């Protein structure tokens, strides 16, 4: 079926052709160029077909395809001439010329058809009643040849209808105003081939094309479409069947060195024969071929591929067609004997491999050979869709003539009113079956899986790239992603980097081993402190308890119990109340503890000064003053904590920065000044206590408490001095563990250094727990 424009153009061209034919009749005489097959008729149709592949060596280059096309045309003409509905009363004749696949000869015979310059002998002055000029030309199959012929006959407006020339360039009606065809343009085939390649996932292919208009134009459209579809060409080379062997070998070398496994061949059948013949010399097999209709379903090409180079080739072909009676007519070649005896003889001898004239090398032809016993490219009907195109071309001309001549029951042989016949081109959907196990792989780079991104390789096409793994915290969940997206703040990329998973939250919990150990240590310290308090309460009236200021001792034990317990507030998921409680409780309880130790240290110093003659210093630091000092020192810390909580209190905080793959839930300090003020005040009291205890360490006594206070303050200060760098450098929950360890270590230091010696005397050396033993040899008063 033709589009409206094509039918209308054929209609108009035939009108012009008829007008010119009436003027040219009988006036052209000259050097004859006789057709290979011809028959007279009221209206003559021309044909340019390649009966041979070379004019000089005609006997050796007979082309069966040309004869098949001729037979298809003759079949259509016979049907039309026998029809009572189409062109009634009009007989169609024909003149078929051999182009020999040559542009020069094709143009020459086209001029012969145009001019009607075969010999015409007129015996009278009677005016001619039929035109000598052909009204339309059927053929040729080669795009380059059609371009040359259409350029020559275009000014004469003689329609040329090709059944196999597919070059998109021939659709240019400015250059080729009279060219028509019954086969789709390569514009559509080229785009369809690109889509076919993309359908199978082949993004890295090689391309070989005819070095003529057919190949160059077709491949240009393919490349344009391929680039839009993300297909890259590793190489694109051109060739022609007459190229020197060195050039063909160079093309084969390019193919053998390539990494692509798919070859898109925009070639005619003859070029394919030349190429695979050279490839067979190097045993180059295993390639996936994608071909055009020019060779993909040509049985002759398949038959000569003895090395299986083209195995598995795919491509586009013309839909199958069946015309009743055509096959039988085409195989009956005897009628050709009447229209072209020389050509018939040549065909018959080639078909049956015999000679009509005696030849000692070959058998003699009888003329009765049975063609059903022959199996070659002439008897092969795989090109029936192309034969059908010839058939449709002849019928298109007949229908146009039918309308031009105003045929009803009979036809007027003069031109009448012009009628326009509309015809529609139906689009057909082509579908392919896809078996992933059988489809070869041809890519420059493997697909980048999820979790990676594509990075183009420098200096190479866009199909060549490296797959770079997404960075930590980034992901890609699609194949061939060009970027990796960053995960939301509370998420992190998984191991494969193809998804984001919720970050693990981390804090020092009671369930983990470190939390359990610290909790156990805290409870153990609390129990030990309570045990010491019980011992002191049980032996509260003994000299050693009374001598060491029992009131401050019990207050110190109470504050140590709070110190051990306050460490528990640091364990568990931080909340608003726990964040405010942990630091303030720690600061206040430790100041209370140090205030008690400081009070005991001052009492030691005052007590020994009171033993000096005339000294009454104890009245200045009696029990009331001791209580007030403890309360005063503690109130200062309370005030600092109140200001801290009022201005910028600690609060729970999700730390996303310290670790990439986890969220640290911690207590932000709120005001760093408040935190360091609390620690600084504790450090100041501890330092003061250490200095005073150090000064009193050598005071005479059998049991000098100042020595033990010195050791306890030394441990306390060492722990907290070490704490600062350890706390700052420890990550996440370990910083909390460091702080708890410092609290527990300093608390155990105070408990052991101050109360362990006393408990030793009370429990294990009760004989020393007397006033006499406390007084010692020196007779000085013990504490």
TrEMBL record:
The UniProt entry, under Pfam families, shows:
7tm_3, ANF_receptor, NCD3G
Domain (G-protein coupled receptors family 3 profile) spans 514-778
Task: Tell me the SUPFAM superfamilies matching this sequence.
Answer: Periplasmic binding protein-like I (SSF53822)
Which Gene Ontology molecular function entries are recorded, alphabetically?
G protein-coupled receptor activity
Keyword Transmembrane helix recorded:
yes
> What start and end residues bound the annotated signal peptide?
1-21
Chief location of this protein? membrane
Against PROSITE patterns, the record matches this protein to: G_PROTEIN_RECEP_F3_2, G_PROTEIN_RECEP_F3_3, G_PROTEIN_RECEP_F3_4
- Report what the protein is called: G-protein coupled receptors family 3 profile domain-containing protein
**Which source organism?**
Sphaeramia orbicularis (orbiculate cardinalfish)
